[in-house]
Amino acid sequence: MSAQAGLSHADAQAGATIAKNGTGSVAACMQCHGANGEGQAAAGFPRLAGQNRDYLAKQLADFKAKLRTNPLMQPIASALSTAQMNDVADYYASLPAWKPGPGIASSTAQTTRGAQLAHQGNWDKGMPACFACHGENGAGIAPHFPGIAGQNATYIASQLKDWQTGARLNDPQGLMKAVADKLSAADISAVSAYLENPK
Ligand code: HEC
Ligand code: HEC
């Protein structure tokens, strides 16, 4: 996930205030998304830090328009104005992105499978590599393709399952639905675990 160039400092400052204090009607984002936007892995709350600002703003607009549904995020996004959404998107995009480390130390059948799906895809089923769209090492390609590297496995797995069931359908041209439909349950576990700490 890479921070975007050209952010307005004033907008990111206004976004920081919302993230830390909330607004009159909205809870502070950091209650769920972590003090530095790192997310809460145990709860499956997503990392937002360093994500591309256009993707973040689109998700907030989609929650507000009920194109993406979630009982926790929907009321929050609905209470934000477009300007406030842009401000918090600027703020989270300006925070440090996840940095690749040495990767998972031990190589198991599951990590091998996860790495294969991320880097090569599954051509038996016509599924391209995750990183073909999500960029080198999953860092994302703004504006349309979010960073997925360093995201918590619980959240990634929940999104992939939501695409399979149709609970999440806000992806442009159904690109992610087509991918998720080609993943087995074991593949979802493998690729989600791999993406938490990929090389
Ligand atoms: C009560 C907990 C909670 C609070 C407070 C909260 N969020 Fe969320 N947020 C979530 C959950 C849970 C999800 C994942 C929703 C899903 O699974 O679709 C989420 C998802 C998101 C996403 C989509 C991330 C992605 O990678 O697609 C964005 C953007 C977001 N939140 C921004 C915010 C902002 C900005 C605020 C503060 C104004 C905020 N959230 C406050 C729980 C919360
Ligand atoms: C053909 C292009 C394409 C491929 C291949 C692809 N994705 Fe995506 N993915 C997208 C797009 C576009 C989005 C943004 C959807 C949106 O705007 O809501 C996305 C979003 C996601 C998200 C949601 C991120 C978030 O923060 O909520 C996850 C998780 C994800 N992809 C995982 C994967 C995995 C895992 C693979 C490989 C198994 C993969 N993707 C392959 C295009 C692709």
Automatic annotation (TrEMBL):
- PTM summary: Binds 2 heme c groups covalently per subunit.
Which SUPFAM superfamilies did the record assign? Cytochrome c
Q: What is this protein called?
A: Cytochrome c
A Pfam family assignment: Cytochrom_C
The residues listed in the UniProt record as binding heme c 2, with positions renumbered to this chain, are 130, 133-134, 176
PROSITE patterns listed in its UniProt record = CYTC
Ordered alphabetically, the record's keywords are:
Heme, Iron, Metal-binding
Annotated source species: Sulfuriferula plumbiphila
Coiled-coil blocks: none
Any single GO molecular-function term of the entry would be: heme binding
Q: Name one GO cellular component term.
A: periplasmic space
Sequence ranges assigned to domain Cytochrome c in this UniProt record: 10-199
Ligand binding (heme c 1): 29, 32-33, 73
InterPro entries, per database record: Cyt_c-like_dom, Cyt_c-like_dom_sf, Cytochrome_c4-like, Cytochrome_c_Oxidase_Subunit
